[in-house]
Amino acid sequence: AAMAITLEQILGDRLAEGTVNIPEGTVPRKAGHKIKFVEAEHPIPSESGMEGTKQMLDLVSELGSRDLVICLISGGGSALMPLPAEGIELGELQEVTQLLLKSGATIQEVNAVRKHLSAVKGGQLARAAYPAKIITLIISDVVGDRLDTIASGPTYWDLTTYRDAFSVLEKYKLTEKVSPSIIARLRNGVRGAIPETPKLGEECFRNAYYKIIASNADALEMAVEAGRAHDLNVHVLTTTMQGEACQVGEHLARVAKAVCQAGKPIPVP
User: Is the pTM of this model over 0.70?
Assistant: First the structure.
């Protein structure tokens, strides 16, 4: 929401209109007048998120080559922008998302499936907006800042395929647990019966530009500065940690215990 408010303040009357999906309960008190805020659920896709995403698609679908789209992306975008592909119901998308999250699949694996069950992810929003120019401003919560992974890359070319998506379901033994319509879509995609998500070199990316304006690494730097300002011994263990929250939490607890007991790998704060 803060990104959208700031953008409207900067652009003023040059901004025609816009719509943004945000987490429930985060509607700003002092919103602008040209950008609509739609509350949606996270991490499981919701009906309200789907309606907001439809509005986004409607906004960009009739644009011409002289128009400019500014896409604002931050953490949680994959869940906040659900719009199932033709033949897929929202409930089926919710179910497969829950199964993938419970299975321990990585964010890259989850997004590979999401992209191929979506009407906007994996570069499909850029395809819908073409021939308009697109500038995407991004706050990244993804390790490595991969543009195809952040919010499932709605304006960035997809590096995964239907085969990749189907392989994820096979890997976690979910092919018998998800809806038959999901399996049918992925199999149709694998055999080329339906179009792939947009890939590098396609015309819709000719006038697309991307800028990461903040990331996890930036947040860590600010945390370090804040800690040192209070005379704390601050040390960044890693910027690439991934995994199940419970397992990562146990690892961090062991590190904290070692610091308290032995002053390693850093002195006691």
Answer: yes
